[in-house]
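Re: folding output
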Amino acid sequence: MDASHSHRHPVFCTVVPPHLLDKAALSGDSRRADLAQRTLERDSLLRTRRRVTAVRGIAPALAAPAPDASDDPRRTIYDCQHRTRLPGKKVRGEGDGASKDATVNRAYAGLGATYELFLKGFGRQSIDGSGLALDASVHYGEDYNNAFWDGQQMVFGDGDGDLFLDFTVSVDVIGHELTHGVTQYTANLNYHGQSGALNESMSDVFGSLIKQYSLEQTADQADWLIGAGLLGPNVSGVALRSMKAPGTAYDDDELGKDPQPATMDDYVETARDNGGVHINSGIPNHAFYVVATELGGKAWERAGQIWYDTLTGGQLTSNADFEDFARLSTAAAVARYGDGGTEHLALQKAWSAVGVPLAG
């Protein structure tokens, strides 16, 4: 980890956005409302704690890189036993046999899948590029309806079994949260407004790629959903978000309708959720989907490589907006694949499709 990274103060990033939990907290079903409210209160506490830590200038105590620079991951899974003290009791380490707890095994496998894509797809050794150990805690709290990256590790709730199921069931959710760590160590995108929406979008993009890589899917075979299988049996919807068709992931009496826009025509101006970081991320998400499907084949090989080059290339500033990312991603496509090639044309088509101009 270089010196500049040591001064970066990560934000608290959840996979379920607050606007969705806000809706659930207004439910006429008292249990649903109480559990949603409890999750919101826990998230608010953790978010405030992370912000205060940053203001005080306390850097997170991150694990040291592997001394042997091995390409193998170093995973450790902890069990919070339905309490909120982290990390909890160690229940599985790297190379240990499978646990009797399916949640532990899913978390272990998801960390491995994420590590493998970044290593084999992009030559990145763990999320910091230097072999950082990957830690995760499961069974966090009582019926906790979220999963999050806290700047040091992954944490998974079990869900309430009604609106949300166990948060380890979707490998893209695991990949999404760990990618917040990759962003933390690279462009360090501010978690507000368009830079925050880009931060969220990076996690959706690589979360989806991790699922596609694990399933050996091509772009046309992928479902392009984030959190498929996570919504409970009583929810009308298929996932938390859709990259293929933002705004269509759910339409539920309790949770409302998916508010994500697909283009700048429907960009949402809001003070909630750090300026709508989970909402407006639908725009760059859809741009990536267009690029990946235009190029075809395995999305991590070309489209994903362009996004990775943009995120890690050193030109993307922490306060970048959509136009900045569009310009830099197009330049990254030209740098790697040449001017006027298929990749360059796919980038131009994608950003035009979502209404983000390619200035300069």
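--- second protein (sequence, then structure) ---
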Amino acid sequence: MTSSRPLHLAAELAPGPGRADPGPDTAARTVALARLAEAAGLDFLTHDDSFARPGLDALAVLARVAPETRSVGLVPTVTTTHTEPFHVQAAVATLDWVSRGRAGWRIEVSPTGAEARLFGRRPAPPTAELWQEAGEVAEVSRKLWDSWEDDAEIRDVATGRFVDRRKLHHVNFQGATFSVKGPSIVPRPPQGNPVTVVDATRPAARETAARHADVVLVEAATAEEAAALRAELHRVARAHGRDPGQLRVLLSLTVDTDAYEGGPGALAGLIADWHGGGAVDGFHLVPAVPERDLERFTAVTVPLLADRGLFRTAHEGATLRDHLGLDRPESQYAAGVRVRTGAGA
């Protein structure tokens, strides 16, 4: 890749709004799409999910995809409302193990009364409160992932000792709506912390995104609007003691290759222009019809970008953090590690 500023590309796998899951063929369909994206070198794939609509659990779907792929990142949507943070982080950590370090999670909230009634635990709080809670879930998840130091597992057959208890840590987290003692029941994930993704299209999510996300998804009508959003996210991240260089901002773009003038070739030009101008770090493509639009994107658009030296021709690293150029954080409980707030803490 000749560009000094890498371009990041991702895509959505779930059927679009109004389109039902394909039923018994869901697994085969999803694996086939994932392999297309992997062959094209995409950084990661998302799979949307919501309590508001029927469908398969995104974590379970991508856990099925993981053994069938080798390098592409896998990022299910995980709702932090009405779920237990301890169980959520354990499931994401498990996906990171199953995928050998390719997992992320896209944090989402459930703001409607209908979703709250599915659980009957509490009324739906205001959306701003839900995003504050989501931030606390992200924070405690990092603490729980770090609660096992990297070398906590000793697997000493002679003595029958599996773990060095001195390297397991209680997190003792108290949030506004939950508390967690810890440690986790899953050893520290291969990436240290799986990649945290937040869709910051809604203003209520932006503080949480800037403070906790590794990747932020935004929507914008112009490159100038996207650049302004990216600058604002960097400013807030810096205010929370984070290095903005460890934050990736991707434009989420719905793609219908039958209706965009110029088709996949014109899309390559748009991506090159917006990225080259510094508006965003990459693009998250939401295909109108995944089987059609993802195939055209990977067959035409991505090779055109590669020919310009803007995108990789193959994955160069093993983990999702490698693809994104993100550091692997050390456990905040390891001796000598300075604890700081925000992502990577």
